Amino acid sequence: MAAQKINEAHEHISKGEKCLKTSFTKWKPDFDSAASEYSKAAVCFKNAKQYDQAKDAYLKEAECHTENKTLFHAANRLQRETLLMPEAIQYIEKACMMYMENGTPDTAAMALDRAGKLIEPINLEKAVDLYQKAAGVFENEDRLRQAVELLGKASRLLVRLKRLDEAAVALQKEKNMYKEIENFPMCFKKTTAQVLVHLHRADYVAADKCVRESYSLPGYSGSEDSVAMETLLQGYDEQDEDQVFRVCNSPLLKYMDNDYAKLAISLRVPGGGKKKAPAAPQGGASGAQTANDEEDEYEGGLC
């Protein structure tokens, strides 16, 4: 059975090569027919478990679509094969350039977004790059709502990758866009995310600055978000582990996007922090306890 499929595959390869040949009576290669033959060959190789040869056949099919200016069709074909994912992304990026040149930037941006989703499970760094490119295309077209959504995807992945300096920059850009489209509740959420990122960067000054600047946003002063961030910053500054823990485990932070929620629950105060001392007992018990503490302090002598 496998041998039969391999023979069939080679027959399709031969037919594909014949379609690409030119002569005195045939001046142009028939890329459509060649692509079809290479596709059939790839399926036969796959059925025979000859995966390297199947990959080569799929790539030949994609090259035919490229020559025939149907790049995105090439990408769509390649993306179905997980072994060919990097090649599929390359073809999608080429297709997007073609869309841009042909005056259809929205289609280009949507294709980049789709490519980001495809590559995200296996390559977070490339997904960040694709989401940022897609956001840039939408931003150039003044489609800020679409742009900021894609920036948000990139910011979350940067946090997951622990590229916190870049995440801080991306979050500020998100916040600026939300401010421009007057989506102030989302500005509040981005401020909270900024504070978490900056504190994980051990940059209290930057975290505090984000909150101070947000007081210029309508509705931020006195909001649940501002009260939580003031409390968090105070606890962090005073190394009050209990206070930081309470804020970071509050519903407001626990139910953020998962990557930011993880930042919240993993936040630690500098130097290990301190817990508030329990309240002293009333009356004579307090004096007795103090005396005991003093005895413990000097137990064993002064040397």
TrEMBL record:
Family indicated by similarity: Belongs to the SNAP family.
Q: What is this protein called?
A: Gamma-soluble NSF attachment protein
Q: How does it assemble?
A: Interacts with RAB11FIP5. Interacts with VTI1A.
Q: Which domain of life is it from?
A: Eukaryota
Q: Which organism is it from?
A: Takifugu rubripes
Q: Answer whether the UniProt record assigns the keyword Nuclease to this protein.
A: no
Acidic residues biased stretches:
292-303
UniProt-listed InterPro entries: NSF_attach, TPR-like_helical_dom_sf
How this chain sits in the membrane, per its record, is: Peripheral membrane protein
Q: Which UniProt keywords apply?
A: Coiled coil, ER-Golgi transport, Golgi apparatus, Membrane, Protein transport, Transport
Q: Name one GO biological process term.
A: vesicle-mediated transport
